[in-house]
Amino acid sequence: MDEKNLKIRKSDIILTAVIVSFCIAAAAFLFFMRSGGETVQIYRDGELFAERSLNKDETVNVDGMMDVVIKNGSVHVENSVCPSGVCEHSGAVSKKGESIICLPNKILIKITGEGETDAISG
Known about the structure:
This protein is an alpha+beta fold. The protein has two domains: 3-32; 39-112, N-utilization substance G protein NusG, insert domain (mini-chromosome maintenance (MCM) complex, domain 2), CATH 2.60.320.10. It is 22% helix and 32% strand. It has helices at 10-32, 86-89, and strands at 39-44, 47-53, 58-62, 66-71, 74-78, 99-102, 107-112. The strands form two sheets. Strands 2-1-7-6 form a four-stranded antiparallel beta sheet, with no helix packed on it. Strands 3-4-5 form a three-stranded antiparallel beta sheet. The longest helix has 23 residues, at 10-32. It is elongated and about 70 Å long. 14% of the residues are buried. The model is unreliable at 116-122 (pLDDT under 50).
């Protein structure tokens, strides 16, 4: 190939900058436009184990496998018996649609809110 064709042109840099800027703007829009959740649903083996309000601070023990701590409008996991402890280190969640998953214990902790729809109900 001709070496002239391999050079980066000014238009390549501009196009790359536009694409990167668009991606950053879209990610920021999605991050900041997410609304806060209202309730936390705890599923064990695919079945609803407990549903609590995010407005009331409390700790829910899930069959001795972990403690789900609801505090200051967010949720995090403490004292999990799973070997990796990934669910404990995942941090707190508070926005609608966020979740914490513990695969070894088959537990899903999901934040829900007003007017939420899923992929099936549209």
